[in-house]
Amino acid sequence: MRLYTDEILNAVCLHYADRRGVSPTDVEVQLSWEEQYGFTAEVWVKGRSQYILEANIIEAIEQYVYKQYKRRVFRSDIQLDADEEFWADIAD
Length: 92
Known about the structure:
The protein is of the alpha+beta class. It has helices spanning 5-20, 54-69, and strands at 2-4, 27-34, 38-45, 48-53, 78-82, 86-90. It has one domain.
């Protein structure tokens, strides 16, 4: 299974909306990859900014796959990658 940028963004938005008790429309996410830090994202919740690390993104994907696809996956099954687009490969 592979999730592309839009679904990864949705996963993070839904996860942080749930954690903060706000609507998903109150959450904005920008994904990035840097040599020094790996995969990160900047998350804005009602205008307040927070940077999250790869582990947080993977946690959001794990929850998203469970809720949207009714599939239980573990963090070790999720591998993030990017070239011109971001994607997450999820082991079967």
